[in-house]
């Protein structure tokens, strides 16, 4: 096991990528991802890894360059945030439809407008239906671990899908944390070289990204959907392997003090740390509260979530995004939809909070638990909004 | 046996027969798809007016207009979509578009 170092998480993400034997990186800098882009460019420039760093003119180009390089058989990485991810939007479903294992780090930031550079999840939610594996990291160590895992997941022959690792902007990217890095030898053992199903090469011509007529498009869409659903069991296997090798275990849905809890808080990403402190404080006062954390967003871990919330009376979902004029936050909407047919299910309370970098403190979580007890309906509500 | 049967299919029928990423492993197999079925009009050449300039051959977006042995031109109706560009571009007016089924 490697030694512990104090490092900014964005820098650590680039260092983790450097351990993964990448061939190509095409990254366009954007706050709060910039340190990832800059540091990775430094690593390539300094000759620490044998890779191409393509200095593209936009995020639309960075993801397109990644798709092309991946088609040629390369191991590729890109990173972005907010508006950059929105600019990639057009290409994202193409990458997944072509089953290209592009790995992305996304420093979550609010989408304009108005312009706001701080953290929430409004950038990743519009990409929800693009067919990518989408995961959330909670702290710096998870960013390091999950960045390395992402390549293994994306390139696994039973998956072959692009992955996006969500890293909360500033709250995570700009934190300096004590981090443990695996050695190059350990990473090599975990992450073998990529073995693509096909590559673009004149000696063995294939066509990728061919068009579909109406008589086959539906079949292709189902094949893509099934591939994403099926990826979950392999992702879990890969996480188990990681756990066995490095001692840190990852699950699609993780729980904290849920035993005997009649009220559950559900978070995604960095908020989990703060929420667990709120759970500790409430438990001390005798309030039976627990915490459920969604690590895997796509494919959605239905069975795991169902098991995690079983027996609870109230499930408080923390949504850092909103579907305007719709059913509420995307996470709560998803959960309600999955639990709709369950005879016995918790009441889902949906709070829209932590938008555009607004801090959500331990006291806020406690206040939301109190508010949830009083709230009768299942409609969404903006927590902390000045009225 | 089953595999052999699938391989001989020009087109996947069921969703699980679609290649991952729709990769086409056989170069040039777009030829197997006859776009001529899209056509509602077909080009007809009047060789009395044709001056053998080949502008129809140059402008055909499908690449299905070919020179015949005697130097005139004709469309491969397996692929001709009936777009009429050849007739539009033929300045001696040797090509007319005729409704299919007439």
What does the average pLDDT of chain A come to? 97
The greatest inter-chain interface is formed by: A-B, 22 and 15 residues
Strands of the largest sheet of chain A, in order across it?
3-2-4-5-7-6-12
Average residue-wise pLDDT of chain B: 89
CATH class of chain B: Alpha Beta
Question: Helix/strand/pairing class of chain A, anyone?
Answer: alpha/beta
Main-sheet strand order of chain B equals 1-4
Number of helices of chain A: 12
Helix content of chain B: 10-25%
Task: Quickly count the domains of chain A.
Answer: 2
**CATH architectural type of the largest domain in chain A:** 3-Layer(aba) Sandwich
Written overview of the protein:
- The complex is a heterodimer of chains A (387) and B (102).
- Chain A has helices spanning 9-18, 34-45, 59-71, 82-88, 92-97, 140-155, 184-190, 214-246, 271-284, 302-309, 330-339, 362-374; strands at residues 4-8, 24-26, 52-54, 76-80, 103-108, 133-136, 163-168, 176-180, 253-256, 263-267, 289-294, 296-298, 314-319, 347-352, 380-382.
- Chain A is an alpha/beta fold and 387 residues long.
- Chain A folds into two domains: 4-246, Thiamin diphosphate (ThDP)-binding fold, Pyr/PP domains (Rossmann fold), CATH 3.40.50.970; 253-382, 3-Layer(aba) Sandwich (Rossmann fold), CATH 3.40.50.
- A seven-stranded mixed sheet of chain A has the order 3-2-4-5-7-6-12, sandwiched between helices. In chain A, strands 9-11-10-13-14-15 form a six-stranded mixed sheet, sandwiched between helices.
- In chain A, strand 6, helix 6 and strand 7 (163-168) form a beta-alpha-beta unit.
- In chain A, 51% of the residues are buried.
- Chain B has 102 residues and is an alpha+beta fold.
- Chain B has one domain (2-99): Alpha-Beta Plaits.
- Chain B has a two-stranded antiparallel ribbon with strand order 1-4. A two-stranded antiparallel sheet of chain B has the order 2-3.
- Chains A and B meet through helix 8 of A and loops of B.
């Amino acid at each position: 096991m490697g030694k512990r170092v104090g490092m900014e998480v964005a820098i650590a993400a680039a260092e983790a990528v450097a351990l993964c034997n990448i061939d190509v990186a095409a990254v366009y800098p954007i706050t709060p991802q910039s340190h990832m882009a800059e540091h990775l460019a430094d690593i390539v420039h300094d000759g620490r890894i044998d890779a191409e760093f393509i200095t593209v003119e936009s995020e639309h180009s960075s993801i397109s360059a990644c798709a092309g390089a991946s088609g040629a058989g390369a191991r590729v990485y890109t990173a972005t945030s907010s508006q950059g991810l929105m600019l990639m939007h057009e290409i994202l479903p193409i990458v997944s439809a072509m089953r290209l294992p592009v790995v992305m780090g996304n420093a979550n930031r609010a989408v304009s407008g108005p312009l706001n550079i701080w953290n929430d999840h409004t950038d990743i939610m519009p990409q929800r239906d693009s067919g990518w594996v989408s995961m959330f990291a909670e702290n710096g160590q998870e960013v390091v671990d999950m960045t390395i895992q992402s390549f293994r997941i994306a390139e696994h022959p039973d998956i072959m899908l692009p992955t996006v690792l969500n890293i909360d902007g500033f709250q995570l990217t700009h934190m300096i944390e004590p981090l443990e890095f695996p050695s190059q030898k350990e990473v090599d053992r975990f992450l073998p070289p990529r073995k693509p199903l096909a590559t673009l090469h004149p000696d063995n011509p294939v066509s990728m990204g061919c068009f579909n007529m109406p008589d086959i498009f539906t079949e292709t869409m189902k094949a893509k959907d099934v591939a994403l659903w099926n990826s979950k069991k392999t992702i879990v296997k890969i996480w188990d392997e990681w756990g066995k090798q490095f001692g840190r275990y990852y699950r699609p849905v993780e729980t904290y003090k849920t035993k005997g809890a009649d009220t559950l808080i559900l978070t995604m990403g960095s908020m989990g740390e703060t929420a667990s402190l709120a759970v500790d404080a409430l438990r001390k006062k005798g309030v039976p509260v627990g915490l459920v954390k969604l690590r895997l967003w796509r494919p959605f871990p239905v069975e795991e979530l169902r098991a995690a919330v079983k027996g609870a009376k109230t499930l408080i979902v923390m949504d850092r995004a909103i579907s305007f004029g719709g059913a509420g936050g995307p996470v709560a909407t998803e959960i309600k939809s999955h639990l709709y047919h369950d005879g016995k299910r918790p009441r889902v309370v949906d709070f829209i909070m932590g938008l555009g970098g607004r801090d959500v403190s331990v006291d806020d979580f406690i206040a939301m638990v109190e508010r949830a007890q009083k709230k009768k309906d299942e409609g969404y509500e903006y927590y902390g909004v000045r009225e | 046996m089953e595999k052999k049967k699938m391989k001989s299919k020009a087109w996947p029928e069921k969703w699980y027969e679609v290649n991952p990423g729709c990769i086409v492993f056989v170069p040039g197999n777009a030829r197997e798809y006859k776009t001529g079925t899209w056509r509602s009009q077909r080009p007809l050449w009047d060789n009395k007016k044709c001056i053998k300039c080949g502008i129809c051959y140059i402008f055909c977006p499908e690449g299905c207009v070919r020179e015949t042995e005697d130097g005139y031109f004709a469309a491969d109706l397996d692929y001709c979509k009936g777009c009429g560009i050849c007739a539009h571009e033929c300045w001696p007016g040797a090509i007319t578009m005729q409704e299919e089924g007439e």
